[in-house]
Design goal:
Mean pLDDT: 94
Order of helices and strands: HEHEHEHEHEHEEHEHHEHH
Low-confidence stretches: none
Largest sheet: 5 strands, parallel
Structural class: alpha/beta
Distance between the termini: 22 Å
Bound molecules: phosphoric acid mono(formamide)ester
CATH topology of the largest domain: Rossmann fold
Number of strands: 9
Helix content: 25-40%
Strand order of the largest sheet: 7-6-5-8-9
Length: 314
């Protein structure tokens, strides 16, 4: 396996299969750290990480924070509502000022696609994409792949359907690319307004029929409708969406394998894309995904820090 040589984590698109495997292998080691009584190692002592979140987040921000603290990094948080961005400061000026404070790594979530790429070209710190508009969410895809690897042992050949608002979903894009690189069979499903035909260019099958996306599949990955990224009416009515695309117990009983797995990146809109009893039921790996987010983010911070070439996780 080749050594991890990337300076930034901008997207799944930029990663080879070997690099994805390297992150997942490292995440498994990090998970063993999280299962110790003392869940903290000195690996990133002296490294400072700035978390720039210009969009709301519960899972990604907090699991980055926990990951940074578990590795003993120093952390600072910059949010839209408490930064000088509100006074008109640009993203680049914000990042350059943090760099002047000798920040080593920047984790950024921003509504503008490719803002992490823009920063990576202009500052010397390592940049990690924590979600850029509807473009990519690489750490989510990696934690999802870790969850699948733990459950099935291997991602190659897995039959995964991603159902919902594909068009506006950065998770759908990153996860589809990651799964294809790992050799999975991917179906994308949603109403035509959420699933333009050009998604076939990714090398996946697309369908507008929920039954076709459920029969014989190993994994059903459900997405919420991204209301915050839509300025036109993509849906005739929410009731109609629920009728044709909501994953509920009745649909699973009729069409799904008995051992099907349900995943969702969160936040879940209960009763819309996913029925509450399915989200909380025996099929669901949703909270395992959240737990794995910490291990994956620890792995990424560790690999990008370059510490790996001089020493391991103590
Ligand atoms: N899955 C995800 O990105 O959740 P948050 O928006 O809460 O970070």
């Amino acid at each position: 396996m080749e050594r991890f040589k990337q300076k930034h984590l901008l997207g799944i698109e930029e990663l080879s299969r070997d690099e994805i495997d390297s992150i997942l292998d490292t995440a498994i080691i990090m998970k063993s750290v999280l299962e110790r009584r003392i869940k903290k190692v000195p690996t990133l002592r002296g490294i400072t990480v700035a978390n720039l979140f210009f969009e709301p987040s519960t899972r990604t921000l907090n699991s980055f924070l926990i990951a940074e603290r578990r590795l003993s990094a120093d952390t600072i948080n910059v949010s839209m509502s408490f930064s000088s961005v509100l006074k008109g400061e640009t993203l680049l000026d914000t990042a350059r000022n943090l760099e002047a404070m000798r920040v080593d790594m920047v984790v950024i979530r921003h509504s503008v696609p490719c803002s992490p790429h823009y920063l990576a070209e202009r500052i010397s710190a390592s940049v990690i994409n924590a979600g850029d508009g509807a473009h990519e969410h690489p750490t989510q895809a990696l934690l999802d792949m870790l969850t699948l690897r733990e459950k099935f042992g291997n991602i190659e050949g897995l039959k995964v359907s991603i159902i919902g608002d594909i068009l506006h979903s950065r998770v759908a894009r990153s996860l589809t690319m990651g799964l294809l690189k790992e050799g999975a069979d991917v179906i994308l499903c949603g109403p035509p307004t959420f699933l333009p035909e050009w998604f076939e260019d990714y090398g996946v099958k697309i369908t507008y029929d929920l039954k076709e996306a459920i029969v014989g599949r190993d994994v059903i990955y459900v997405l919420r409708i991204q209301m915050e990224r839509q300025d036109t009416a993509f849906l005739p009515s929410l009731r109609e969406y629920i009728r044709y695309y909501s994953v509920n117990r009745d649909v699973l009983n009729r069409y799904a394998r008995k051992d099907v797995i349900i995943m969702h990146p969160g936040p879940v809109n209960r009763g819309v894309e996913l029925a509450p009893d399915v989200a909380d039921g025996p099929w669901s790996l949703i909270l395992h995904q959240v737990t794995n987010g910490i291990a994956v983010r620890m792995a990424i911070l560790y690999l990008l820090s370059g510490i790996g070439s001089s020493g391991g996780v103590e």
